[in-house]
Amino acid sequence: MAAGLARVPSCYYHHLILKNKNGLSASVAVPASLKKMVTNAAAAAASSSINHGEYRSIAERVSLEKEIKKSKFIAIAAPISDEESAFAFLSEVRDPRATHNCWAFKVGQHSRCNDDGEPSGTAGKPIQSAILSSHIDRVMVVVIRYFGGIKLGTGGLVRAYGGVTSECLRNAPTCLVKSKVPMAVDVPFDLLGLVQHQLQHFQVEDIEQDYETGKDGFAMVSFKVDFDQVEKLENAVKANCSRQLVFYKQ
């Protein structure tokens, strides 16, 4: 076990492989709650196409309505976090009275689409292609079509679905989103206030305190911080504490 890490009951911990500044690895004991948090975060990161810890998404839900040869097309785009939120959005905006509710979404490397009754490859794929061309991540676009009586043909459908999606995304306000790193630190009770102050200064998210670590007088504080603030946060906490604290991170 690495120096400075106290042992906790075996019924309560899992092991993570951590590396020190010299590149040496050690298997260390961490609470099961932290193991679950790190595992979930790692799974989310693995499904992402984030470059250098950040990606571009749309800032809010947007829509675009267009009439093409008497058919009305309504494209609705929204930021999403995962497949579950994508289908929740679809359930919310789809119109059962419409002729078709076609869609596509992208979350990292994961992407799906659906033609919803249109000829294969003429609706979902063009929507998906428009999303990929926009270089926007974690987004879903639903295009609702009300048939106007004139058939568009295969090429016309591809241009219609792809075109309204592209235009909708071009008009959408975008934002740069920084990926979050899940971290935790063993904190003596008397230093909790100081550590909490530093965490608030760095605007970390999802702060939790676990007092059932098996270590008397210590709490395990877990949180998520912007990827480019990890080292600065560690240094700030260590500089303001009279004792060495042990950080865990994925």
Automatic annotation (TrEMBL):
One of its GO terms (biological process) is regulation of translational initiation. Pfam families: Impact_N (PF01205). Residues 69-169 form the Impact N-terminal domain. Signal peptide: none annotated. It comes from the Eukaryota. GO terms for cellular component: cytoplasm. SUPFAM superfamilies: Ribosomal protein S5 domain 2-like (SSF54211). Belongs to the IMPACT family. This is Impact N-terminal domain-containing protein. It comes from Salix udensis.
